[in-house]
Amino acid sequence: MVLLPGQYRILAYRGFHDLPRMMLVTDSASKRWVLDCPFEDERDDYAPVYRIHAVDTDIAGPSEVWERHTLGLLPDIGALSVNSLQFDETRRASFIL
Questions:
Q1: How many CB atoms lie within 10 A of CB 70?
Q2: Among residues 39, 46, 24, 35, which one has the least CA distance to residue 1?
Q3: What are phi and psi of 63, to 5 degrees?
Q4: Is 36 domain-assigned?
Q5: What pLDDT, on a 0 to 100 scale, did the predictor assign at position 24?
Q6: Is residue 65 situated within a structural domain?
Q7: For the stretch 32-50, what's the b/e string if a residue is b when 16 or more beta carbons lie within 10 angstroms of its beta carbon?
Q8: For the chain, which ranges sit under pLDDT 70?
Q9: What pLDDT does 49 receive?
Q10: Given the DSSP bridges, would you call strands 39-40 and 32-36 parallel, antiparallel or unpaired?
């Protein structure tokens, strides 16, 4: 597993269907990642895992992160089961892993 157990804050998200489908998250040490759970046409459902993408410290805000992610410039460093995240009651602020 790439992300360590603990609490993660959701800094921004895009797409929401029951839960955020793409999130910019941070841990207590201020490391940042993009978690992406795209819709899979062949399954006619969202993927059962989030792909984890590392975010460098030199990337400023969410708009730059989304742009780099769209261009495929954020390294894919692993996957995480959607069911392994315990979201806060709003499903928009934080989660525990």
A1: 9
A2: 35
A3: -65, -40
A4: yes
A5: 97
A6: yes
A7: bbbbbbeeeeeeeebeebb
A8: 1
A9: 96
A10: unpaired
